[in-house]
């Protein structure tokens, strides 16, 4: 299991590096979009190449950061259902869901997209729009995104299995949305911790007498 965990952590490092690097493209796409809008409005000049570059950048952000989002546990969940379940039940749902849904879907997309992107590269496919960009890099981004997602899904499956079957501590980050949900629940019941254990009298009093945050 230790070898599998090392493999999973290696995948996590690659995913994190790619995700953090791609995050900077958000700034680039904002600059490109703003510049394109200003030039079009002020000088009445437009270019299909600049418009398509915006689409390519958005696609790169969405596809290449999907695996990082999974690794950071930031994908949307139905929190009203998830929070009502025990931690072990949620781990089992993740474990089975990765096997039954995520990995087969990501594997199928890689299998379908490889010849799709390869064919586009072989013919050096260009956009049908006048002055448009070359197309094959955009199609290659689709393939790269699902390859990253497939490997990250394997990593998450290994980590979830280690928690369920080998007693490893859970290293899954608490996503910002889930942390906010937990904070809201704690605020609704300040005298009761999330685990359901009664606080000592002194600790309870310190909580109830605490000054509200400004």
Automatic annotation (TrEMBL):
<keyword id="KW-0812">Transmembrane</keyword>
<protein>
    <recommendedName>
        <fullName>TRAP transporter small permease protein</fullName>
    </recommendedName>
</protein>
<comment type="subunit">
    <text>The complex comprises the extracytoplasmic solute receptor protein and the two transmembrane proteins.</text>
</comment>
<dbReference type="InterPro" id="IPR055348">
    <property type="entry name" value="DctQ"/>
</dbReference>
<feature type="transmembrane region" description="Helical">
    <location>
        <begin position="92"/>
        <end position="114"/>
    </location>
</feature>
<keyword id="KW-0472">Membrane</keyword>
<dbReference type="Pfam" id="PF04290">
    <property type="entry name" value="DctQ"/>
</dbReference>
<keyword id="KW-0997">Cell inner membrane</keyword>
<feature type="transmembrane region" description="Helical">
    <location>
        <begin position="134"/>
        <end position="151"/>
    </location>
</feature>
<comment type="similarity">
    <text>Belongs to the TRAP transporter small permease family.</text>
</comment>
<keyword id="KW-0813">Transport</keyword>
<comment type="function">
    <text>Part of the tripartite ATP-independent periplasmic (TRAP) transport system.</text>
</comment>
<feature type="transmembrane region" description="Helical">
    <location>
        <begin position="53"/>
        <end position="71"/>
    </location>
</feature>
<keyword id="KW-1003">Cell membrane</keyword>
<dbReference type="InterPro" id="IPR007387">
    <property type="entry name" value="TRAP_DctQ"/>
</dbReference>
<feature type="region of interest" description="Disordered">
    <location>
        <begin position="190"/>
        <end position="214"/>
    </location>
</feature>
<feature type="domain" description="Tripartite ATP-independent periplasmic transporters DctQ component">
    <location>
        <begin position="30"/>
        <end position="159"/>
    </location>
</feature>
<keyword id="KW-1133">Transmembrane helix</keyword>
């Amino acid at each position: 299991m230790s070898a599998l965990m090392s493999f999973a952590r290696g995948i996590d490092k690659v995913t994190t590096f790619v995700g953090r690097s791609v995050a900077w493209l958000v700034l680039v796409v904002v600059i490109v979009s703003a510049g394109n809008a200003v030039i079009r409005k002020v000088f009445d000049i437009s270019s299909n190449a600049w418009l398509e570059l915006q689409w390519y950048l958005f696609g790169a952000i969405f596809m290449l950061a999907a695996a990082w989002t999974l690794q950071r546990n930031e994908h949307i969940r139905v929190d009203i259902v998830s929070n009502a379940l025990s931690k072990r039940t949620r781990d089992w749902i993740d474990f089975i869901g990765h096997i039954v849904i995520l990995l087969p879907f990501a594997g199928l997309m890689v299998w379908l997209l490889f010849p799709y992107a390869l064919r586009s590269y072989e013919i050096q496919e260009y956009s049908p729009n006048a002055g448009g960009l070359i197309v094959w890099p955009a199609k290659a981004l689709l393939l790269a995104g699902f390859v990253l997602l497939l490997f990250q899904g394997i990593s998450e499956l290994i980590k979830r299995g280690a928690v369920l079957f080998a007693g490893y501590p859970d290293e899954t980050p608490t996503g910002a949305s889930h942390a906010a949900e937990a904070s809201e629940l704690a605020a609704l019941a300040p005298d009761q911790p999330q685990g359901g254990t009664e606080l000592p009298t002194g600790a309870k009093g310190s909580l109830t007498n605490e000054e509200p945050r400004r």
